[in-house]
Amino acid sequence: MQSQRTLSVWNTLAAWPARAALAAIVSIVYGYSLAHSVSTSLLVLLPIALVLGAVLFMRPEIGVVVLLGVRWGFFSEAGVKFHQLPAITTLLSGLILAALLLRRFGKRDIALLYDSATWWMLGYLLVICLGIWYARSPGDAQSMAIEFAKDLLIYLLLINFLSSTREFELSVYVLLGVGALLGTLTLYQEITRNYSSDFGGLARMEIAQIAESVHDRARASGAIGDPNTYCQQFVVLVPLGIWATLHARSLRARLAAGYATFACLGGVALSFSRGGYLALIVALALLALHIRVNIRYLLLLLPLGALIWWLMPAESLARFGTLEELLPSNQGIYSELSYRNRFVSMQTAIDMFVDHPILGVGGGNYGYYYGSYVQQSGVLADTSATVAHSYYLEIAAEHGLLGLFVIGGIIAVTLSRLRAAQQLFTQAGAHRMAELGPALRAGLIGYLVAAAFLPGSYTRFFWLQVSLAVALAAIARRAASAAAPAAQMPKQQG
What we know:
Elements: H1 2-35, H2 40-58, H3 60-73, H4 75-83, H5 88-106, H6 116-134, H7 138-161, H8 165-192, E1 204-208, E2 217-222, H9 227-247, H10 251-271, H11 274-290, H12 295-311, H13 314-321, H14 337-355, H15 366-377, H16 391-427, H17 431-434, H18 436-451, H19 460-493
Antiparallel strand pairs: 1-2
Helix pairs in contact: 2-3, 2-5, 3-5, 3-7, 3-8, 5-7, 6-7, 6-16, 7-19, 8-9, 8-10, 9-10, 9-11, 9-18, 11-18, 14-15, 14-16, 16-18, 16-19, 18-19
């Protein structure tokens, strides 16, 4: 007992020099800041940021969940653009990466997790970097490589620190919380008809014509500023919200998840994205086919669908009706400017692919070639477009068959990981977690359907879904391995 007291006193005395040094550093920093008229808000936020940074460094598992929410909600970019804040994503990634390296090299017995999807993603990075060599605008290809390298880093952080069912469920609820926040802001704007406030850049609006009889209508764009991508964000979250509504551990959590699902559906409706509407229908149809064995699930979805239909503004129905112009028999396909520009951009991407079938024109170089291709075709269209209105055609134009092969491989591996996770959790008796696989798969397929009508400007959401699929499969493998010996013990004892 005496030795323990002596050790405690020694530790206390030894801590005083460190505390004094810390106090001196803080005094110097604040003294310098006050002398140079640094913002008061920055002085207040600085210690909070330091404390949070220390907590996230000590608990990187929580850090990656926060990083996922910030990345999905586009919060970091909104903070930089509208409030001149530092890039939160960069700071979080740096802290978590430091923790990952410390865990790997500080404790040699802890290996980093990787998956065959990792090699496919590295292959895609190689394809992009290869484009720097032959692209006519190598700067654009280099920028694309840097951006994807960030996505790859976040992928590695997520699959290494989302390592338990508790952390994974928390990540799902954080995503639903992001969807509830953004969707609620959008619904509030619609109910009050007050579109002037964008809530600090989190609820931006785009004024556009959405149908022949509906002009100058506000389209919800969220923090990202693009209504179509904003809708695509929510399409992924709706199946997760349904999963949480059906399988959350408490009634309170189920009610919260139900509201988050409703808010996400509101965001989809008010984005007026036709491709998003189709994607949501596909995602919900896939989820309904999976849960068809339980009639109570369908009984829950029917009144929810009826409520959404009743609350949906008339403009959404008008917007959905314009989809018939896509039919080949409809001669009015070029009557709408957005359709004309979209189809010209798609045709241009096909022409680029035909001219450069193996390697494409190089990452980010579609816009460099677009104007000259349109002028050669003689079609009246906007010549300033920088992206194709289809992610797959954009990949074909910029990376050729090689890029299509790699992206196809990544999609196939991701879907296989979700199926494997469902099977392994079922074997382990974790039926709640097993149902997450189909929910994530429905959201991913919905996202991929929407990607057929949208450019690849914000593919971060795709890479985050790849990360979640790989992490869930790894958790399922550990759960199945832990359950196998327990299942065999009675046989061995008998």
